[in-house]
Amino acid sequence: MTLEFEKVVPQVERMGRALAAQNLDDTQRTLAAWEFFLTLGDLDAIWTRIKLARERDAGFRGAAPLYEAINQAYPLPSAPARATILAADGSQIYPNAHGSALFYLTNIGVFVFHHGVDELPEQITEPRLHYSPTELHDSEGHLIANEAVNARRNVGEIEVLARESWRRHEIPAPLLAVRDGPLLFWVGKDVPDGKELQDRYLGVMVWLLDTHAAMVREHGHAASLVGYVDRPTSAFVVSLLHLLSLEASEVRRTALDTNGVLEGLVDQFLMFKLLKPGERSALLVQQSPQNKRYHDKGESYEIAFFYLNVGSSGDYHLARVEMPMWVARVPERVDEVHALIYHQCQVMWRYPYALTRADELAVVRSHERSQLNELIEIELRRNQQQVEHSEKLESKVVRHGRTTYSQKHK
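^ that's the sequence the OP posted. Answer follows.
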């Protein structure tokens, strides 16, 4: 059965008209939000309203300013003459109940870039094969969900990143450790070892702060941690605008469950008007239970962020750059992060070069997955284990035309 396009085309046409009307409405609301945004120069007044929302437990999840005006752009500073940039990324093979053996694999790649010096980059990979029943099943004996593998891979990424950062803490230059995605780490109910993973993650944050303290003590340079979020769809600033638009008597959880007339808008629309290439927004802190947990661990661990236009020559491309407070509270460290991240994005067209290379190191390609499965089957037979293939899996392979039964079993 093929897709009947004559039935789909009228629906596509209706979709186009609906999106056009929606975009017109979004443009008008964005202009109103922008005009209101430009009036917000009083940090004390902003904090008074945020504290009121906290006192009333109103569930505010928007942004709070640090020490900079929120409606101003901050220019690109000069990059340090030398720096060590470490980027980590990971990929995985999920457990497959229809395979010849039950396992999952994570592969973590770290790329080390020596900024400002004529040294070859370093490449590190760390594949980990997991096959024990305790790793593959929850407490009730059910096969773990893919979300559990993702969570374990995320913790593994930052652990390897912290280890490799510590190994280079004696280099007399700033160190920038970068991971792909947000720094705030939390897990859902589908992750059986969620609490242990969150504790491990916070432990790694302590390790990275120790690396920073050692570098400052030994040669006066910082070790900064960054989470890089490409094309963010967050609405933290929009939520702040909504809070500030309310009367004090209206600051209640019911009013903050949505962003009111601004619902559906994201910060990118505001940043597009505010930031020229190379400029960043003010430093901001998301108000959330997850971030409060980091703050309660210690003020240095709370996560702050700024938006950065990593485009060039009139081009626009937004990123959100997250960092712990041990970086955010010192303007010189923020300048180093700002300049180095922007410089990295110019090497590889609007995305950090080191992260691009880390992703290339980490990705497990389809032919490598096949080769790994073959190695596992050979080893099972060598150990007198019966190798069986799921009939369901075989039928899928035949149906999608990737191979035939006879080809697979030559």
